[in-house]
Automatic annotation (TrEMBL):
Organism this protein belongs to: Streptomyces palmae
Domain spans labelled Response regulatory: 2-116
Entry's Gene Ontology BP terms: regulation of DNA-templated transcription
Keyword Metal-binding: no
Gene3D superfamilies: 3.40.50.2300, 6.10.250.690, Winged helix-like DNA-binding domain superfamily/Winged helix DNA-binding domain
One annotated GO molecular function: phosphorelay response regulator activity
PROSITE patterns assigned to the protein according to its UniProt record, in alphabetical order: OMPR_PHOB, RESPONSE_REGULATORY
GO cellular component labels: cytosol; protein-DNA complex
Annotated protein name in UniProt: Transcriptional regulatory protein CutR
DNA-binding feature ranges: 124-217
Residue ranges of every copy of the OmpR/PhoB-type domain listed in the record: 124-217
Amino acid sequence: MRVLVVEDEQLLADAVATGLRREAMAVDVVYDGAAALERIAVNDYDVVVLDRDLPLVHGDDVCRRVVELGMPTRVLMLTASGDVSDRVEGLEIGADDYLPKPFAFQELIARVRALGRRTTVALPPVLERAGIKLDPNRREVFREGREIQLAPKEFAVLEVLMRSEGAVVSAEQLLEKAWDENTDPFTNVVRVTVMTLRRKLGEPPVIVTVPGSGYRI
């Protein structure tokens, strides 16, 4: 899942991004509304965590732009105000969910994951394919009953492949969904991660390389 965090309180923004990355999400961070509009124009995000009171361009206008573009991106709006009227106004603008500050980080994670599921065809909370069971919420992976310990990026790649339900996923798509914008697009990090993931999942191999196209399970 790829997430954009838009928050002008830099310490909070960086802390949220760090926490989401630990949950195997690819996260980009910006600190004002103008930068958010630039990122949204060039990258596809599953979820935008959007502070409402932003400098340069207000969070409401960023949210409206997402709606105008007809993007599948879901917006989780943050605000220091807990007033009900503010929440209603934010939802009417086009936000998909609303979370007042201060918030419990586990609730933020749960809401981001719930919104991420709504950007694609509905799938069960626990993904199962080819003898593999993946639970995104618990960040657990089992193969034939055996628990497999994965690094965050390995987990993210496996989740993208599982969610594709047998369709081929290109290296570029994996790079876009599992890594942030600071990753060199010409790196071999996808190939290396897939190789490590194959080894950890064990025999017989379940990740198939489709020459010239990508990977599938």
